[in-house]
From TrEMBL:
Ranges where the Transmembrane protein TMEM132 fifth domain occurs: 96-207
GO cellular component, one term: membrane
InterPro entries: Ig_TMEM132_4th, Ig_TMEM132_5th, TMEM132
Name of the molecule in the record: Uncharacterized protein
Record's subcellular location: Membrane
Upper lineage: Eukaryota, Metazoa, Chordata, Craniata, Vertebrata
Keywords per UniProt: Membrane, Transmembrane, Transmembrane helix
Length: 207
């Protein structure tokens, strides 16, 4: 991804996504001067892409509802002006949750200790573990969250443009894994938002 593209991950995380911008002027003698702090700037659509007060970066903050190809930001310095075009990609909702195995069975003959909450000493932990006994072990599955990143075309007509192409989705699991929940925690549980493990017979879903 180059510097004229921005993925609006803020929609998923609530954290601002930025791309730095630097404005320079080329003098008659060919010298280059950084005029960023003397520049005025304006986004042509703040609902898609915003620009900082100091004109030193463009950003999205998660309040946006759409993306756009060739989104323009105007910069002005004295009597000079320039336009920056950015491709702003936004995740298509709802996200697609995939599980490597949708049926988690008991592993025959495999039992694991039931570990109680931590105590102050090893002896008390060991005693508590023995008292609690063991439970059946269930299979595990990997959880992955995917989505397309899309943008309106510049003419705002027809089908949207796709980041990486229509046949490719982006793995956003690292961005959203701590927001994932198991509908019925008695049936299964989620470890670090990536691994689903069975706990008891039943049907549940990852949301």
């Amino acid at each position: 991804m180059d510097d004229t593209e921005i993925l609006n991950t803020a929609v998923l995380t609530g954290k601002k996504a930025t791309v730095p911008v630097r404005t320079v002027a080329v003098e008659e003698d060919g010298s280059i001067t950084d005029v960023s702090e003397f520049t005025d700037c304006r986004s042509t659509d703040k609902d898609i892409l915003k620009v900082s007060d100091r004109c030193d970066y463009v950003f999205v903050n998660g309040k946006e509802t759409k993306g756009r190809a060739k989104m323009a930001v105007n910069f002005t310095y004295s009597y000079l002006s320039a336009q920056l075009e950015m491709n702003v990609w936004i995740p298509r909702l709802p996200l697609q949750i995939e599980v490597s195995d949708t049926e988690l069975s008991q592993i025959k003959g495999w039992r694991v200790p039931i570990v109680a909450s931590r105590r102050n000493s090893w002896d008390s932990e060991e005693e508590d573990r023995k008292a609690k006994g063991c439970t059946l072990q269930y299979q595990h599955a990997l959880v992955q969250v995917l989505t397309h990143f899309v943008a309106e075309r510049a003419d705002q007509r027809g089908r949207p443009a796709y980041f990486l192409g229509r046949d490719w989705q982006v793995d956003v699991t690292p961005l959203v894994r701590y927001f994932l929940r198991v509908e019925d925690s008695r049936v299964a549980r989620l470890h670090r938002g990536r691994v689903l493990s069975g706990r008891d017979a039943g049907v549940t879903a990852v949301q």
